[in-house]
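## retry 2 of 3
previous attempt timed out at serialization; input unchanged, resubmitting
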Amino acid sequence: MAISESGDTMALRPHTWTKFSSNGSSCVEVMLTSSEVLVRNSNHPDSGTVAFTFAEWQAHTEGQKLGVFDLPAGTL
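## retry succeeded, writing output
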């Protein structure tokens, strides 16, 4: 479960965009629908979305938890 900047826990809510940010300016929004998970850039919400099946989203979040998608040291 994610934590908001105010310290509250966050979870995906059906049919509602939920914003996640690690630094306040680079934000993504995620929405749970009845059949998929949508992701968009909150700074450019009209630029389109990426859709994931529930299985794809589960695999992605498991990979995130394991550090599979971490940037190499010194990248930032």
